[in-house]
Amino acid sequence: MGKRERARDRRMKFEKKERTDRRDRDFAGSIYGSERRESRKDKFRDDRRRPDKDNKRRFEHDKDNERRDFRKRGEERTDFKRRDDERRDFRKMGEERTDFKRRDNERHDFRRSGEERTDFKRRDNERRDFRRSGEERQRFHDRDRDSRSSFGNGRGRERSFVNDKFKDKRQRFGRNNDKEFDKPRFEKKEPIRPLYEDRNFDAKPRFSDKSKQFDKERRDFSHPINDERFGNATMIRGRLYSISKDGLQWYGEIVKKSKGEWLREWDAKKSKIAAAIKKGFRFNLTDQSVLYLGSSTGTTVSHISDLTTNTIVGVDIAPIVMREFLLLSEKRHNIIPLLYDASKLSECELLKEQKFDLVFEDIAQRNMVEIFIENFKVFSKPSGEGWLSLKTRSIDSTVPSERVYNQAIQKIQNAGLNVKKTFNLEPFEKEHYFIVVGF
Asked: Has this prediction a pTM greater than 0.85?
């Protein structure tokens, strides 16, 4: 509030007081007479006109203003001082906050260093305990064994400290032999010698050095030990591999190098030929030409390409899988992709008057047996063989698979072909049969 506002307030209060006094005087005049009232009013007017009184009032007003200004200056000084104190306190608080933060960081770092020291100490203790465990294991075992040996009522006693008291008891009970007395109650039995201990494992494990090694005993029992090699395929500890020249990995199989040769693992669950090999089928495709019906993306064809150096013609009707099969043919030059229908392959001009040592069919058609018989008669050499992957559920899913299998064998024999071998591909392939056919 400024000076003018305060002066206006004082003037309004003064006028209000003056009106109140005039009202009181008028009330009093009404009682004592009008003359008295008029005289008082004149006297009041005369008093206001007196210069000495007016000067005194003005002096008092100026004095009040000075006092008020002095108080105001004092309050302002107090406010300025308080403001400066607050600013100083704020700066001090900022410094204190910085100090507190630095102190907390130091405490945190100290606690952290203490925890790290504890971790290092624990790690060193574990290493030391691990080193000690090898040295003290036998000593601890002997100590526990001695403590388990009992005397009298069965209470355990350590035999490493034999005093005269125990010697007296030995004499009392007729046990003068210290070795007999210190002999433990439970003797350690020799471990049972496993049956596979005498076998020599010359082959390398399935995984490389960077891969996880399975437990040796579980691996030995899970796969029979029948290492064998036929052509460019080999069986090592129950696992089938094709010997590759370039170590090509086509569908994510395991590829490793052993004795200067690249070995590609041949999964029996992804290839009918590999499943037949696991079931006992043996062959040699060195320098033999192959006609593969149903090549798909080339999973099995890539392994056959390792087994033979001659031409392999892969036939498939699906353009999508043929696109991936083309990429394989670019990497393996003995593979020729052919996008064609296997049921009409005899009409193909590219294969006119072409003969193959092996005709293999792996397609899912209701008339797969008729397609195989026709293509085998057209494209097989007189001394060639035919392999048929029979999918009984694709032919007829309403009858048992054995009946479908017997009907397929009967059709092949009625066509004048000779069924050499048959294999049931379970458990690798359910309700699948592998049939070897010749003239």
From this structure: no
